[in-house]
Design goal:
The protein has 552 residues and is mainly α. Helix content is 60%, strand content 0%.
């Protein structure tokens, strides 16, 4: 720097401080237009002067509405400066423009959002802090402005990179401190819910799971929430599942979406929301073409159906039962044929059958040949269904024989695992044997469940299981509550979209677990249809955006 430029720099800085001093001393700052204009003009000089001007322009902004345009334009020029220090100082000053003039919040949020893609850490950090400051000042206006950059069907986002940055900011910075930000609580929780619902019209699978996890964490959807709130959530999930779309068995994306949404909707069904729309869709579109589904998705679908079956209404149960009985017959062989039987399929189907039949027992008379009397015309006791009973009980007996033989071999295998564990030298070998033991244990649980569910079905007037006495083999047994002092609270969803809810339900490792369980049972029994093992775990995702309808 030359002596001349150094002198100019010193002069500009001295002038700046003089302007600021006069403004600080003034009792009616709006009269000091000359001084504020001087600050704006000085912002076009040296780097040091620019850094100072970046502090002073927003500080006195509210007093000079006639200069708001030039002031903001000059400040935006500072944000685009090559010098990082100037840019960071200008970013830090942005929230001050809105402190007493909230009408500028949307514009300032828009500016900050564009800066989220900065490659400089210190600059991004300043942007994050500035956005958080705005959220603290006016959470409603700031959230509304932020969510506009996520987009919807009517107002799609025009910049995918910015959209991703905004989503990451909301997930990582906003959601974790919702309790502090969303005040007054009920009003602001409702506001962000409405913003999310609009955004769900155009999201990926991972984004949908992230938003649903957040909604479930809000107090308005908490344990004390009325049934209407559960209906609202199941409605959102139903919209995303595309239940109004024509089903195409070759559309793997829609199948994944449907399975994911079934599982995401289950907690709301458990709390009283209706599953009718899902069940009707399954009954009309999925179950009739079940054999044509991708092998790796069949078990997902059966498990989802099993888990939702305890919460079906009698009307839905009667409607879907016939198709379920047909699936039971498809996968429970009448006699040995040399083909493998998929034990987990059978467990799912028997569990579903019991819970549906428990609600409409006399519907099984014409389907399975039972003689259940309710006094209703639907008993159909005057008709002869004895051949159905004979066929159904033959299937039960054959499945029981296959299951007992498999249990014997699994038990023998467990003894072998125990011996191998005692002889194992390396940690790797011990871990491998431990996994085998766990798989064998799960296989035995599957077999025990099958026998417990087939046993009452031999009677001509069976008692169907409608309680929680059967714990599905892939689900963890109910454990005592964790003491409050050691319990951990759930944080945000990881970026890969893994589901907190599913891990609590014991489904988190569903794909791998079922591969291993079926492998443990593979070749130990014959008879009936072959059921493929799962080739991959449930991704809980679907391709691209734009398919879901949210809750329009």
């Amino acid at each position: 720097m030359t002596d001349s430029s150094a002198a100019d720099d010193s002069k500009h800085i001295e002038e700046l401080y003089q302007y600021v001093e006069r403004l600080n001393e003034s009792t009616d700052k709006s009269q000091n237009v000359k001084e504020y204009q001087g600050i704006i003009d000085t912002a076009k000089s040296s780097i040091k002067a620019k850094q100072l001007a970046a502090q002073f322009i927003p500080r006195f902004f509210k007093f000079f509405p006639t200069l708001s345009g030039p002031a903001i334009d000059t400040h935006l020029d500072l944000i685009e400066e090559e010098e990082l220090g100037v840019r960071v100082q200008a970013i830090r000053g942005l929230p001050l423009f809105c402190k007493d003039t909230p009408e500028h919040i949307a514009k300032i949020v828009d500016i900050l959002v564009q800066l989220l893609a900065s490659e400089e850490f210190v600059e991004r950090d300043a942007v994050h802090k500035a956005l958080m400051s705005l959220l603290t000042q006016d959470v409603k206006a700031s959230l509304t402005a932020l969510f506009k950059h996520i987009g919807s069907v009517d107002e799609p986002s025009t910049d995918e990179i910015i959209r991703e940055k905004v989503l990451s900011f909301i997930r990582d910075k906003v959601f974790p401190i919702k309790a502090e930000l969303l005040k007054p609580r009920e009003e602001m929780e409702r506001h962000i819910t409405d913003l999310i619902k609009k955004s769900l019209e155009d999201v990926t699978g991972a984004e949908f799971r992230m938003f649903m996890d957040f909604l479930k964490s809000l107090s308005i959807f908490g344990e004390q929430a009325p049934l209407e709130r559960m209906k609202e959530l199941i409605g959102i999930v139903e919209g995303q599942a595309d239940l109004d779309a024509q089903f195409n068995v070759s559309d793997a994306d829609h199948i994944d979406r449907l399975i994911s949404c079934l599982y995401m909707g289950l907690p709301f069904v458990v709390r009283g929301a209706s599953s009718s729309k899902f069940l009707n869709y399954l009954n009309k579109h999925i179950i009739p073409v079940f054999d044509k589904l991708p092998e790796e998705r069949k078990l997902d679908m059966l498990k989802a159906l099993a888990e939702i079956s305890p919460y079906t209404t009698p009307q839905d149960s009667r409607q879907i039962l016939a198709n379920v009985v047909q699936l039971v017959k498809n996968y429970m062989p009448r006699r040995k044929t040399g083909e493998e039987m998929n034990f987990t399929y059978v467990e799912c189907l028997l569990y579903t059958f019991h819970h549906l039949a428990h609600k409409v027992p006399n519907a099984t008379n014409s389907l399975c040949g039972y003689k259940i009397v309710t006094g209703q015309p639907s008993d159909r006791l005057g008709e002869d269904f004895s051949e159905f009973y004979k066929e159904f009980t033959e299937r039960l007996s054959n499945v029981e024989e296959l299951t007992r033989a498999t249990m014997k071999k699994l038990t023998q295998g467990m003894a072998g695992h125990n011996k191998a564990m005692a002889a194992a030298k390396s940690d790797e070998a011990k871990e491998s044997i431990k996994t085998q033991k766990q798989n064998t244990t799960t296989g035995l649980r599957t077999c025990n469940n099958i026998l417990a569910m087939t046993k009452p079905l031999h009677s001509k007037t069976p008692s169907f299981i409608g309680d929680k006495s059967i714990n599905l083999s892939w689900k963890e047994a109910t454990k005592p509550p964790v003491p409050a002092a050691t319990a951990t609270t759930g944080g945000k969803r990881p970026a890969n979209g893994a589901s907190n809810v599913t891990s609590k339900k014991g489904r988190g490792a569903g794909g791998l677990q079922n591969q291993l369980v079926n492998r443990a049972l593979e070749g130990l029994s014959h008879g009936g249809r072959s059921g493929g093992t799962r080739g991959r775990g449930r991704g809980w995702g679907w391709a691209g955006r734009g398919r879901g309808r949210g809750n329009r």
